[in-house]
Amino acid sequence: MQPNSDAIQRLARISAHLDPPNLQMESGSGLEQVKCRARGGSSGFKVAILGAAGGIGQPLALLMKMNPLVSLLHLYDVVNTPGVTADISHMDTGAVVRGFLGQKQLEDALTGMDLVIIPAGVPRKPGMTRDDLFNINAGIVKTLSEGIAKCCPKAIVNLISNPVNSTVPIAAEILKKAGCYDPRRLLGVTMLDVVRANTFMAEVLGLDPREVDVPVVGGHAGVTILPLLSQVKPPCSLTTEEVNYLTSRIQNGGTEVVEAKAGAGSATLSMAYAAVKFADLCLRGLRGDASIVQCAFVPSQVTELPFFASKVRLGRNGVEEIYPLGPLNEYERVGLEKAKKELASSIEKGVTFARK
Ligand SMILES: NC(=O)c1ccc[n+]([C@@H]2O[C@H](COP(=O)([O-])OP(=O)(O)OC[C@H]3O[C@@H](n4cnc5c(N)ncnc54)[C@H](O)[C@@H]3O)[C@@H](O)[C@H]2O)c1
Ligand SMILES: O=C(O)C[C@H](O)C(=O)O
């Protein structure tokens, strides 16, 4: 059948008037230059995801697009953002989505943002520690932190890239160097440890995980991940065997996934879930909601270390209050000493790198 020329002309006229997808207007980026009525950001928060095309970044972008508190979602990566942005922009939720590709567009991606979530960087393979990622990820976090310092120094930063115990100190040093460091606004994301702890604890107790709350303090690697099982809500008593099993499973949750994925990366889906849960708490804090409390790895005076994960209260300025660890049992006191020893050298490594 011959194409009907009237129909073709009609289609051409219609498509010329259609609102295009919400892609960033940048030449040479692979992103199409388009005219777009939607502006985004009229109400609600502006959120950027750096590393948005990755294993965590993509489901994280999907879930943030579904968050009603987000009005503008910027997706930045050094690869593949045009496709991810086009795909996610078709979701009929409120947030306007824009894509940014490559270092040249980092500043546009960051300008005006209220919250920046960073899952950029390489993940582990079996046999590696998180610290083995330092050499690559430290430089990535440094560059991205410099961009934040320049373009959105007042944004809340949720840092996911590993090793979190070192990348958070790196970001802090870079922001200090730029003269815009506000310790309340820099948070290392340890939410996945809490999510895992709640899940594994619920399995042992035969409860719904949504009813369980286990504080996890310290840091985000091996023995620095310190679940305070004695403070679980609802209160319960555990056998020594259960405490050993749960502590080890929570500390090795990341490795469990890395081994199961057998070379194809580390936790991405559960991490995206945890990151969105945490980002949502940060946004609710920014909105002024009361009593938003969760664990995070933050600049801290709870111990003698300059950074430590513990429960924090989130508010209009980020971290408004950091809670003390509360009563620890002997098992947890021993764990705390081990955690602090390893944390001290990971923090020092990050600080030294950033000061070079
Ligand atoms: N904090 C946590 O609990 C937690 C949990 C899981 C994974 N992680 C960490 O998150 C990071 C990402 O994991 P993943 O599985 O998504 O990895 P991935 O390789 O699938 O994705 C990483 C993305 O980062 C991008 N990227 C690389 N350099 C960049 C740069 N300079 N600027 C912007 N983007 C850049 C890559 O292009 C890629 O799309 C890893 O370091 C991993 O160890 C942390
Ligand atoms: O284990 C990893 O390397 C990724 C992440 O830190 C996790 O805890 O799953």
TrEMBL record:
All residue ranges annotated as the Lactate/malate dehydrogenase C-terminal domain in the record: 190-353
Subcellular location: Peroxisome
Enzyme nomenclature, EC number: 1.1.1.37
Domain Lactate/malate dehydrogenase N-terminal: 46-188
GO cellular component, as recorded: chloroplast; peroxisome
Molecular function in Gene Ontology: L-malate dehydrogenase (NAD+) activity
Family of the protein in this entry: Belongs to the LDH/MDH superfamily. MDH type 1 family.
PANTHER family from the UniProt entry: MALATE AND LACTATE DEHYDROGENASE, MALATE DEHYDROGENASE 1, PEROXISOMAL
Protein's recorded name: Malate dehydrogenase
Species the sequence originates in: Escallonia herrerae
